[in-house]
Amino acid sequence: MEVRIHRILTGSRANGPGIRNVVWFQGCTLRCPGCFNPQTHAPHGGQSINVEELCDRLLSPFHPCDGITISGGEPFQQAEALLNLLQELQKQKAPPILVFSGYSYNELRNNPVSAACLPFIDALICGPYDRKTPPVYERFCSSGNQELVLLSERYTENDFRNLPVMEYFFDDSGNVIISGINS
Ligand code: SF4
What we know:
Layout: E1 2-12, E2 20-25, E3 47-50, H1 51-58, E4 67-71, H2 79-91, E5 97-101, H3 105-109, H4 112-117, E6 123-126, E7 147-150, E8 167-170, E9 176-179
Parallel strand pairs: 2-4, 4-5, 5-6
Antiparallel strand pairs: 1-2, 1-3, 6-7, 8-9
Helix pairs in contact: 1-2
């Protein structure tokens, strides 16, 4: 199965607990005012990649990590591919998985394909970004209306406290990119 992605980043420290390998899915129709990642909205932007290849890149032995983060864009707008990726990551014994979503936990639970993804996810940060609601860094949320939902025992709320919220890195073309929940 193919999935459209915006970017992969290895060795991130501002996208969840510890050192993380991150993929941003491409495509989002939610249009939260003030969104940090408008370049991820176009459904046909980014690049298409096979899910197995994506999994191999996220779990590359050259980039050991403490966890995998899946962000966007809106990952659940490619829910079949997301499920496929999560199953593949589990098969390969991936470290804990954090997923960011603009949908609320209730919306995700009430959609059959999204709900099928939840047992493979360790933590969710979910709900639409609201620039009028200040961030809550104790829950690692870029706006206070968002929820941190722990879905397994691999994380506790404490793991999400006092994390870096912004980082800089270079893309393949040498451009400086800002990443993290306060970027
Ligand atoms: S869900 Fe995320 S990517 Fe989509 S508009 Fe909202 S903040 Fe931006």
